[in-house]
From TrEMBL:
GO CC terms: cytosol
Name the record gives this protein: phosphoenolpyruvate carboxykinase (ATP)
Annotated pathway: Carbohydrate biosynthesis; gluconeogenesis
Keyword Lyase set for record: yes
Record-stated family: Belongs to the phosphoenolpyruvate carboxykinase (ATP) family.
GO molecular function per UniProt: ATP binding; phosphoenolpyruvate carboxykinase (ATP) activity
Family annotation (PANTHER family): PHOSPHOENOLPYRUVATE CARBOXYKINASE (ATP), PHOSPHOENOLPYRUVATE CARBOXYKINASE ATP
Disordered, as annotated region: 1-31
Length: 686
């Protein structure tokens, strides 16, 4: 089909081409057209006159360059001067860089980057210089005094003799060029996105995420069974940090991104990402909040720094290492080191873990949820594990998108932590998800997708590289994004589960105790791919729908959620975006349009006042009708052909729920004894 189309297009072009040629004066074979040397009918608008009656071969102005090199130098305009240095600084409010010259500011910035990259054993940062090493002019001689580079006090070692070039907050266009020139597997797709490969790891490696245990974190953090925080000591962290920093400094150039997290300006943090790949720099450019040039000038010292040396493995002879991958967080040093994985999601989710530590300390609840808002200001949260529909369902053409994955709930309302979205691409189509499909354009990063060698058309159904194909794009690529990404207190809290057992109803209305029970339980069937090594869906429990990212005990987050939901009167819902009519392999996944209709009925308030029945075992309230959804699927028992197998499956899942919840039964949720008892009773009855 496509070939036919192309062929006939080509025929048309040829036909058009020849007809145009025919209508102009065709040069007769063997007779070349005469060269004109006289002005005849030059357009009157042309600003210059012919000299000595000799006409130039071109009707435009001559180029203002004497040589080819000069011509090339004209092509690139220097960026507009950065915002003027503020002079009106009072003695009471001197800002960090307010009274300094542009040169001094640049020097301080490079000094800060050099300090970030400092070796802790040699106690010095590398010699850093701004700009691409391929532009030789910018590589200074060491004795030259040049404001573009910074030389720290260097102890004797060969690594101290070279410069590390810093590609600082490059634009997407510059990053495209860097990726395409220097990184294998980088291509521009037909829609303008940058296609890249993340290497051997195409998903996160939760079993390789380590957190430094020290005198503070011993008591503060959640350790042990079920916790994502695999311990490591400070010394081992420093060994890995040194390995990453030495690797990065051995390169000709590194990328540095200085950006923000959290749209709530009172609770924003400054992050620095040092990475070796343009792909990683563009990914974080999309995922974090992009500073304005003025904000960048006043950036100062970051609150948290990532060293991404993902191409380089960790050393398995190092204590605590169980593979060649390690993602290490040190809260005291405010640093994270990545070795042995190039999957970009580690950076995004690593920072999310950090927010899960920092925000609750301020009484702010961090949420692994999507978030959107109706035209009347009604906010909905979409909690759920990977693949349950946070990104898909929060991206809704009829509502404003606040964010697809990571939020904060403070006394001021909700705020997105990030500046972009990270959508799954498997089986993506314009028809099913037009807004996400259209966001995959110039500036978007497309990970691990397969495309036609010639047309660069992406085949979203192709799983040859991985099932976890991904697109990262700035949030403003979604047409109805809410910028700034903040909103009032949520009205609906939707818990998403992708139930591979097919026994949970497509929608149920939850009591407060049930909401807490299901929030702490965090059930889903993990969909293939996002976590490395998972190929088939399997039942999973992940506390707070994000056990891989929370840092404190789950009951801390649960207590905060209960308090906020009560205070602001939010309603909890459980939505199964997984299977109906049988388990995975027998039934089928609930159709996305049905789920959207369910979600619409929640947003509109229709589902608050409708008829409900209660299910056995889980005791869930289910509506008897939802507009645009076949009534027979609303009660899963009706959708199953074999009722006996349904009941067995239901009991099996209920048993897994009970078993999972045992560890939480000895904990109290906040200061409320009654709520704790109610939560324990809100689980399945068997
Ligand atoms: N009924 C449904 N509801 C939500 N998503 C569905 C449904 N059926 C299929 N899907 C697919 O499941 C995936 C959900 O993934 P995503 O929205 O990225 O989840 P998350 O953001 O929670 O990780 C998407 O690929 C989506 O197209
Ligand atoms: C980036 C991730 O998020 P999600 O799959 O929830 O979109 C992830 O879990 O690796
Ligand atoms: Ca997620
Ligand atoms: Mn998502």
């Amino acid at each position: 089909m496509a070939t036919d189309g192309q062929a006939s297009n080509m025929d048309n072009n040829l036909a058009n081409g020849s007809s145009v040629a025919a209508s102009a004066q065709p040069p007769r074979r063997g007779v070349l057209p005469r060269i004109q040397t006289r002005i005849t009918t030059m357009a009157a608008s042309k600003p210059y006159k012919a000299e000595n009656n000799i006409c130039h071969d071109d009707s435009s102005r001559p180029v203002k360059a004497q040589t080819i090199d000069e011509l090339h130098s004209l092509q690139k305009k220097r960026s507009a001067p950065t915002t003027p240095i503020k002079q009106e600084v009072t003695a009471q409010s001197p800002t960090a860089f307010s009274t300094i010259s542009e040169e001094e500011r640049q020097r301080l910035q490079l000094q800060s980057i050099s300090a970030s990259l400092a070796s802790l054993t040699r106690e010095s940062g590398p010699k850093v210089v701004k700009g691409d090493p391929k532009r030789k002019l910018e590589t200074p001689k060491a004795h030259e005094q040049h404001h573009q580079y910074f030389t720290p006090n260097i102890s004797t070692s060969d690594s101290a003799l070279k410069f590390t070039h810093i590609l600082y907050n490059l634009s997407p266009a510059e990053l495209y060029e860097q990726a395409i020139k220097y990184e294998h597997g980088s291509f521009i797709t037909s829609s303008g996105a940058l296609a890249t490969l993340s290497g051997a790891k195409t998903g996160r490696s939760p079993r390789d995420k380590r957190v430094v245990i020290d005198e503070n974190t011993t008591d503060e953090l959640w350790w042990g069974k079920g916790s994502p925080n695999i311990e490591m000591d400070e010394h081992t962290f420093l060994v890995n940090r040194e390995r990453a920093v030495d690797y990065l400094n051995s390169l000709d150039k590194v990328f540095v991104n200085d950006q923000f997290l959290n749209w709530d300006s009172e609770n924003q943090i400054k992050v620095r990402i040092v990475s070796a790949r343009a792909y990683h720099s563009l990914f974080m450019h999309n995922m974090c909040i992009r500073p304005t040039s003025e904000e960048l000038e006043n950036f100062g010292t970051p609150d948290f720094t990532i060293y991404n040396a993902g191409q380089f493995p960790c050393n398995r002879y190092t204590h605590y290492m169980t593979s060649s991958t390690s993602i290490d967080i040190n809260l005291a040093r405010k640093e994270m080191v990545i070795l042995g994985t190039q999957y970009a999601g580690e950076m995004k989710k690593g920072l999310f873990s950090v927010m899960h530590y920092l925000m609750p300390k301020r009484g702010i609840l961090s949420l692994h949820s999507g978030c959107n808002m109706g035209k009347d200001g009604d906010v909905a949260l979409f909690f759920g594990l990977s693949g349950t529909g946070k990104t898909t369902l929060s991206t809704d053409h009829n509502r404003l998108l606040i964010g697809d994955d990571e939020h904060c709930w403070s006394d001021n309302g909700v705020s997105n932590i990030e500046g972009g979205c990270y959508a799954k691409c498997i089986d993506l189509s314009h028809e099913k998800e037009p807004d996400i499909f259209n966001a995959i354009k110039f500036g978007a990063v497309l990970e691990n997708v397969v495309f036609d060698e010639h047309t660069r058309e992406v085949d979203y159904s192709d799983k040859s590289v991985t099932e976890n194909t991904r697109a990262s794009y700035p949030i403003e690529y979604i047409p109805n994004a809410k910028i700034p990404c903040v909103g009032p207190h949520p009205k609906n809290v939707i818990l998403l589960a992708c139930d591979a057992f097919g026994v949970l109803p497509p929608v149920s209305k939850l009591t407060m105790a049930q909401t807490m029970y299901h929030f702490i339980t965090g059930y889903t069937a993990l969909v293939a791919g996002t976590e490395d090594g998972i190929k088939e869906p399997q039942a999973t429990f992940s506390a707070c729908f994000g056990a891989a990212f929370i840092m404190l005990h789950p009951t801390k987050y649960a207590a905060m959620l209960a308090e906020k939901m009560k205070k602001y009167g939010a309603t909890g819902w459980l939505v199964n975006t997984g299977w109906c009519g049988g388990r995975y392999g027998v039934g089928s996944r609930i159709k996305l349009p049905y789920t959207r209709n369910i979600i619409n009925a929640i947003h509109s308030g229709v589902l608050l006042n409708t008829e409900y029945t209660k299910t056995e075992v889980f005791g869930l309230e289910i509506p008897t009708v939802v507009e645009g959804v076949p009534s027979e699927i609303l009660n899963p028992m009706n959708a199953w052909e074999n009722k006996k197998v349904y009941k067995e499956t239901l009991l099996k899942l209920a048993g897994l729920f009970k078993q999972n919840f045992e560890v939480f039964s000895k904990y109290k949720i906040g200061s409320d004894n009654k709520l704790t008892e109610e939560i324990l009773a809100a689980g399945p009855n068997i």
